[in-house]
Amino acid sequence: MTETKTRAAHLLPLTHTARGSVVKRRFSPGDKSFRINLLKLAAFSLVLCALGSQSERAFSLPIPAADAGSPQANVARDGQHNFDFGIGVWHTHIRRILDPLSGSSDSVELNGIVTSRKIWGGRALLEEIEADGPKGHWEGLSLFLYNPGSHQWSQSFINSRMASLGSPLIGSFKDGRGELFSQDTFHDKSILVRAVWSNITPDSHTYEESYSNDGGKTWAPSFTANKTREQQEPASDIAAGSETTSTAPDGHEFDFDFGTWKTHTSRLLHPLTGSTTWVDLDGTTVVKRIWNGRANIAEFKATGSSGTIELLALRWYNPNTREWNINFATPNVGMLGNTPGVGVFKNGRCDFYDYEPINGKSVLVRFSIWAITTDTAQSEQAFSEDGGKTWEVNWINRYTRVKGD
Known about the structure:
Elements: H1 32-41, H2 71-77, E1 88-97, E2 107-119, E3 124-133, E4 136-147, E5 152-159, E6 169-174, E7 177-186, E8 189-201, E9 204-212, E10 220-231, E11 259-268, E12 278-290, E13 295-304, E14 307-318, E15 323-329, E16 341-346, E17 349-358, E18 361-373, E19 376-384, E20 392-401
Antiparallel strand pairs: 1-2, 1-10, 2-3, 3-4, 4-5, 5-6, 6-7, 7-8, 8-9, 9-10, 11-12, 11-20, 12-13, 13-14, 14-15, 15-16, 16-17, 17-18, 18-19, 19-20
């Protein structure tokens, strides 16, 4: 029996399973224009310490930081606090309909804990979910990102059992109700997915996910989570040090990278053109362990001759393939990139690879990171036009640990 690919499909190890409050999905081929626009926006981003592979678009001119009183800064605040109601620790009672489009009411129930906190200076929300049900214990991670240009939120989800990241739900809030949408497959057929946050009070709210196979004319509820507050704020911030325990089989491979780093970056301005012009940026990278060691995030900010760049990176471990994945977001894009870099550690070094379009060509991208000493590390990014036979390095990132962090 085919499993739905939505985030709901990966909350439980059931034939058709549920999720906590985010969806996994893929855009249809008709979404090509969306992907192109996203890549154009990503042109203003930068790959650094905790980042994975990134196309040449990442090396366009940086985005100058908005002045606090500028129209751009005011727009960025519009809608950015929509999910503030979810900050804290919640008990969640979940009911998952096993086959919602069949008219059957057969379901399973779970109980668990959801912990939500702001990260990246309030630009993102991180949600960690633990639940127990008929098939045992399950954990999930979701990342909420806000796009100040479109005034929309994106929501991406990773399952502890499958650890694959799909394209996000996207949508907005209106009259105190949040609705995010995506397209997915269920029983090998294309469906629409709708996620709704409603009945929002200071100490409770409801999340419901529904499917539609008639273009949104009708919706069949597939998953409902009723949340009641247990704590106003999470007990503590996410861990920045390697002393935190990890439940991932290889969750300690990035231990060398946790903490705060002074970062010096040298960037080749025009890769694959024969250019030899490099520019420098200086800034700080903060890397923290999350999701019981299955993932980590990096927040980067650097300034160079062309302005200030800020970036959020997400790295997570796939226990099935024993590989690490990397993806990132920038403030003006408001969602993770379409294609993560994938890599494994060998002799203390991780090389992440993916193919990306650069100047109209598909180019192999490699991002590598390794420790030099306890307090120094380095990473490099390189492009190859011949399938990995030769490489041109276009980023060199040098890290020096900030003591006492």
